[in-house]
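Deliverable D5.2: sample structural annotation.
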Amino acid sequence: MRFTVYLLCLWLVLTGCSTYRPIQRQLRQNPQLTDHATGFALYDWEKQKMVVQHQAHLYFTPASNTKLFSFYAGLVTLGDSIPALRYVTRSDSLIFWGTGDPSLLNQNLPDTTVLRFLRNRAERLVFSTTNYSGQRFGPGWAWDDFNDDYSAELAPLPLYGNFVRFGSPDRIARLDVEPRFFRDSVSAVSERKFSRNVQRDEHRNRFDRPAAVRPFHQDVPFRWSPQLAAQLLADTLHREVATASIPFDHSAKTLYSQPADSLYKRMLQISDNTLAEHLMLLCSSVQDTLNSTLGIQTVLKKHLADLPDKPNWVDGSGLSRYNLFTPRSIISLLQKIYKTVPQERLFQLLAIGGSTGTIQRVYKTDRPFVFAKSGSMTGVYNLSGYLITKKGKVLLFSMMHNNFAGSVADMRNRTAAFLTEIHQNY
């Protein structure tokens, strides 16, 4: 009897392994997956076990897969709403400190809570930045990306997403600038050869544009400063906003803005770097200090100490190549997220294959089956998330491609073909 039970258990183990053997074979032999560094991990949620691992213990540059870590940090640190300001009243003044909330005057995240609050206060408005101890860029960011919309500066009180939106809807020599505050900071330059429509001076808010205007749209980061933030606020509120270096008051009250899911959804689907970076500032703000490194270290220590491999996690967005994660650690993270967020809500926040976000042009189907976060930069393409098979299985996956010389689009298509096959056969 015991021998029979032993044989049955052995048979179950062997058949379980053989079920996924074709996937292992592809990972070892398919030239589409072997001409560069590929890591892959697949986890069966129903069986609660890892069913495929290929170089899953090796470290890869995650790019925007880092945002999954930032998302989890928000889930375990913040409540349902985003803290927007910390404030106290002293005599005739309302003194306020930022929290890193990126929604203030952000066209992509419309919310008027802070504006209504400040506009309706009778006190003198005073803005202080003494609770912020970070730099304007994250560790390892490319310094010459300062003109690109994905590299907006970090700040305790972001406004307008910390960028200027330029646009010309037609060929008339008209340039739309938002916020209008920057209109007088733009110069038309005819003799210069432009690689882009608008180029900002690296160290100040002076913007050059070609004299010959053609239809275009461009978001260009501005140089943030406490004084500029106060000016932009004053310009919108039509009242004075002063700045002062007033030490943070730990008894300060908190003003909340919009639902946290609004921020999570855009960050995960559109892969908004500014939102991801400021989410980590928000996470650190619960300790009354705005510092991304502090937020990251706290989450690693309190909530991610049990990952299979210790992450090298340095920023919120994944812009830095200093970030290094393993596929099997990402699987562990996906398990934690899946246990924390109900499936229906979670799948609406992530990019949906064939439908929304960065993977809407692949996985075309009437019934979406991939819900994931992509991550890409030169030589890097990763996709991690959840896959629903034709049989209804929920599989957690992390596929990481590094060190390839081809295009990201090609690697995206290779990944889609590989995952679609898993969807169809399992």
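Annotation notes: DSSP finds twelve helices and 17 strands in the chain. Residues 2-19 form the longest helix (18 residues).
The annotation will be released with the project's public dataset once the embargo ends.
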